[in-house]
TrEMBL record:
This is Zinc ABC transporter ATP-binding protein AztA. The gene is aztA. The keyword Phosphoprotein does not apply. Pfam families: ABC_tran (PF00005). Residues 6-210 form the ABC transporter domain. InterPro entries: AAA+_ATPase, ABC_transporter-like_ATP-bd, ABC_transporter-like_CS, AztA-like, Metal_Ion_Import_ABC, P-loop_NTPase. The keyword Nucleotide-binding applies. Belongs to the ABC transporter superfamily. One of its GO terms (molecular function) is ATP binding. Keywords: ATP-binding, Nucleotide-binding, Transport.
Length: 210
């Protein structure tokens, strides 16, 4: 675990001719929930992907380099093409700890079942992901993300499709992870979630910030 969190230094990224991030410097504190805010297209998802190592910056760096961060992306339609149940999907979140050829240990199975219970999906644990409602599906993906034994959690608009009660539960779960010393970063448009965060980082489009 990093006691000092992560430093983003001089980060720049473009998709071809479209510059999205330009010389961004900020810190991500451990033990805190950081909200990434900004209008549509200001680069919140891109920044999360850069931090996660899914994309490579054109310039700048994130230190220390995150090891196995847990990332909840906005786009997850690919899951619907797989014959996965709710239980399978959440269990996948525990796979990073063990080689894929080793059977799951009781501890990992229990962690998955507990997280399924926390998000209220136990009655539907044998259901196929493709058969769930949008909010139920999002609960499972949140569970899959938060069950991961990471020290950095990156969530892209996690409250999408959630009802009010589940949004509150999400805040509780994020707080628990932060209180356990984890670094939690959430891209959000949700006012309650932003109010709940300890730190807010606002992104503006490079052309606006010049
Ligand atoms: N794969 C891609 N190829 C080209 N351009 C992209 C790609 N992904 C995103 N962009 C562009 O990069 C910019 C930032 O996109 P990004 O999804 O990071 O913004 P965002 O702040 O997360 O937006 P939103 O609030 O709508 O989710 C946008 O102008 C978008 O059109």
């Amino acid at each position: 675990m990093t006691a000092t969190g992560y430093t983003v230094r001089g980060l720049s990224f473009s998709y071809g001719a479209t510059t999205v991030l330009e010389n961004l410097t900020t810190t991500l504190q451990p033990g805190a929930v950081t909200a990434l805010v900004g209008a549509n297209g200001t680069g919140k998802s891109t920044l999360l992907e850069l931090i996660a190592g899914v994309r490579t910056p054109d310039a700048g760096e994130i230190t220390p380099r995150p090891r196995r961060p847990a990332l909840l992306t906005q786009r997850s339609e690919h899951i619907d093409g797989l014959p996965l149940t709710v239980r399978d999907c959440v269990r996948i979140g525990t796979f990073g700890q063990v080689p894929c050829w080793r059977p799951m240990a009781r501890r990992e199975r229990r962690a998955a079942e507990e997280m399924i219970e926390r998000v209220g999906m136990t009655p539907l644990r044998e259901s196929r992901m493709r058969d769930l409602s949008g909010g139920q599906r999002q609960r499972v993906l949140i569970a899959q993300t938060l069950v991961q034994p990471a020290d950095l959690y990156l969530l892209d608009e996690p409250s999408t499709a959630l009802d009010a009660g589940t949004r509150e539960l999400l805040c509780t779960l994020l707080r628990e992870h932060a209180d356990a010393g984890k670094t939690v970063v959430v891209a959000s448009h949700d006012r309650d979630e932003i109010r709940f965060a300890d730190t807010v980082i606002e992104l503006a489009s490079p052309s606006m910030s010049r």
